[in-house]
């Protein structure tokens, strides 16, 4: 029996699949993608993220199959560039989300996470005396150097980051390639974050967006993955650019074992190793209808699923019956 309390092994999954102008339907215990060229079977149990682009129709049965197999579904714009909606992850416990919210709500703890997130981008230790503004300046230099190096290696001219989602075709090829590559990275990081039980909205460096934490995590990998992939794709020509960028990202994510790295990196940044969801007789309940605990200001937690209006509370667990 599938235990929805257990953390899915995201590291063992494929990264993502982007589809557009097609029909997605259930196919036995998996799904199938159907377009004018035919039908392709997709083993969704091995997939972390399905990105549904324009012109996509998906059946209710297919969505249910994807959810049961722990595959995050994202509805996005053309090429995966704009984000519209998402499904839910597979984990059903909130201890990691509570830990994240605690860190995000305390300025002192939040600053410590921010410094760790920045430190993870640099090979050398950051001096403790550096202010956050100084660290941001160092990060800006690091990213500009990554663009300069990618331009030199690929031979693609770099004039700076400039694009508009409202005027997609007006951007130069390398900016379109970067946006496409980053969109793929955001989707994969988003899938891992939700699967691990964290919130994509509770960011530390970034704030105010529903994907703030996705941006925090994705920034750990851009100079290694999406910047080289985008410049490399443009150096090979601009025909079918967005599609080639997505394929390069898919291959590079697999080669660099991105899915194996995201959740451990989050645990380091949030000092969340103690919040791992270990299975055990005390925290695994096979009845998914049983409620969780209730918060109480004096007792901290009291049992959920109890009718507290009754005189006898011992045998009145909701959904359970005595033999």
- Beginning-to-end CA distance, first to last residue: 23 Å
Indicate the structural class.
Answer: alpha/beta
The CATH topology of the largest domain comes to Four Helix Bundle (Hemerythrin (Met), subunit A)
**Silhouette:** flat
CATH superfamily grouping of the largest domain: CRISPR-associated endonuclease Cas1, C-terminal domain
Largest sheet: 4 strands, mixed
The total number of structural domains is 2
- Strand percent estimate: 5-15%
Q: Mean pLDDT, as a whole number?
A: 82
**Number of helical segments with 4 or more residues:** 9
What is the chain-wise order of helices and strands?
A: EEEEEEHEEHHHHHHHHEE
Kindly state the number of beta strands. 10
List unreliable stretches of 5+ residues. Answer: 1-8, 277-291, 312-323
Computed over alpha carbons, the radius of gyration is 22 Å
Residues in helix, %: 25-40%
What is the spatial order of strands in the main beta sheet?
A: 1-5-7-8
- Using the coordinates above, name the CATH class of the largest domain: Mainly Alpha
User: What is the annotated CATH architecture of the largest domain?
Assistant: Up-down Bundle
What does this structure look like?
The protein is of the alpha/beta class and 323 residues long. The chain has two domains: 10-86, CRISPR-associated endonuclease Cas1, N-terminal domain (Ribosomal Protein L15, Chain: K, domain 2), CATH 3.100.10; 95-275, Up-down Bundle (Four Helix Bundle (Hemerythrin (Met), subunit A)), CATH 1.20.120. The protein has nine helices and ten strands. It has helices at 60-68, 95-105, 107-119, 132-154, 173-195, 212-218, 226-235, 241-255, 258-269; strands spanning 14-19, 22-27, 30-35, 38-42, 47-52, 56-58, 72-76, 83-86, 294-296, 300-302. Strands 1-5-7-8 form a four-stranded mixed β-sheet, sandwiched between helices. Strands 4-3-2-6 form a four-stranded mixed β-sheet. Strands 9-10 form a two-stranded antiparallel sheet. A hairpin with a 2-residue loop joins β3 (30-35) and β4 (38-42). α5 (173-195) packs across α9 (258-269) and α7 packs across α8 (241-255). It is flat and about 70 Å long. The two termini are 23 Å apart. Residues 1-8, 277-291 and 312-323 have low confidence and may be disordered.
């Amino acid at each position: 029996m599938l235990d929805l309390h257990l953390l899915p092994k995201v590291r063992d999954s494929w990264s993502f699949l982007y589809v557009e102008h097609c029909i997605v339907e259930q196919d036995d215990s998996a799904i199938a993608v159907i377009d004018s060229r035919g039908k392709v079977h997709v083993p969704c149990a091995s997939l972390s993220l399905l990105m549904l682009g324009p012109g996509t129709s998906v059946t209710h049965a297919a969505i249910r199959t994807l959810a049961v197999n722990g595959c995050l579904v994202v509805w996005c714009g053309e090429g995966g560039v704009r984000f519209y909606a998402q499904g839910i992850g597979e984990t059903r416990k909130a201890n990691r989300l509570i830990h994240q919210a605690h860190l995000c709500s305390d300025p002192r703890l939040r600053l410590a996470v921010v410094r760790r997130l920045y430190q993870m981008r640099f090979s050398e230790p950051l001096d403790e005396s550096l202010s956050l503004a100084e660290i941001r300046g160092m990060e800006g230099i690091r990213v500009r150097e990554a663009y300069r190096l990618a331009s030199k290696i690929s031979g693609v001219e770099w004039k700076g980051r400039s694009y508009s989602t409202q005027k997609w075709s007006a951007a130069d090829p390398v900016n379109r390639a970067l946006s496409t590559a980053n969109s793929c990275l955001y989707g994969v990081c988003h899938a891992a974050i939700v699967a691990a039980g964290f919130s994509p909205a509770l960011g530390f460096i970034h704030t105010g967006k529903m994907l703030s934490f996705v941006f925090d995590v994705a920034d750990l990998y851009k100079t290694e993955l999406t910047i080289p992939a985008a410049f490399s794709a443009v150096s090979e020509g601009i025909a079918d650019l967005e599609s080639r960028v997505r394929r390069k990202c898919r291959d590079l994510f697999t080669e660099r074992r991105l899915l194996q790295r995201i959740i451990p990196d989050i645990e380091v940044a949030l000092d969340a190793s103690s919040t791992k969801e270990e299975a055990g007789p005390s925290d695994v309940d096979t009845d998914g209808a049983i409620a969780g605990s209730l918060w109480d200001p004096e007792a901290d937690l009291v049992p959920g699923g109890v009718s507290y209006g009754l005189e006898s509370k011992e045998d009145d667990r909701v959904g359970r019956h005595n033999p």
